[in-house]
Amino acid sequence: MIRVVLAEDQGLVLGALSALLSLEDDLEVVGQAADGAAALELATRLNPDVLVTDIEMPALSGLDVAARLQAQGSRVRVVIVTTFARPGYLRRALEVGARGYLLKDAPAQQLADAIRQVHAGGRAIAPELAASAWDVQNPLTERERQVLAQAELGASTAQIARLLQLSEGTVRNYLSEAISKLEAAGRVEAARRARERGWL
């Protein structure tokens, strides 16, 4: 049996995924989480074969969970299932060790097959995204991304500096670089453009 943990913040979707996967003879749903922190805790404690997770969730995103599992040296393989058909998200998912990336409108059988493929050591990427994933490079550094993400939430330069333990001048430099790279008029537009492209 392939042991699976599901992470999805929409109750109906979580229930539907669990019910569909439970119909498969070789798949067993051993845990369900409604947010990223619970997903990380379950994946660490239950040590399933595969974690199927959404990207946008409370507490931690699916990408954050995948990154932390990778940092822990976990053997849990991660499959992202999302509505975001953006190459930037796929690239980030692969960079943090995800082995699968599917869209929520894919047939249920495709998810079951992807779990089997990933469990066997392969990759399972939505075909409509696979080719375009490498077309547009993310120009932002990790620090620029962190600073821009906080700016998107409305944090001031001083607040970002305190949170990230940087000087205000350094934060301004990162924001300026990000705004320039994204050819935006200001931090709000830069954050919006980065978000649209899957870089935040």
UniProtKB/TrEMBL annotation:
Domain annotation HTH luxR-type: ranges: 133-198
GO molecular function: DNA binding
Protein name: Response regulator transcription factor
Record-listed 4-aspartylphosphate modification sites: D54
Originating organism: Deinococcus sonorensis KR-87
Key words of the record: DNA-binding, Phosphoprotein
Keyword DNA-binding: yes
A Gene Ontology biological process term: phosphorelay signal transduction system
Domain of life: Bacteria
Domain Response regulatory span(s) in chain numbering: 3-119
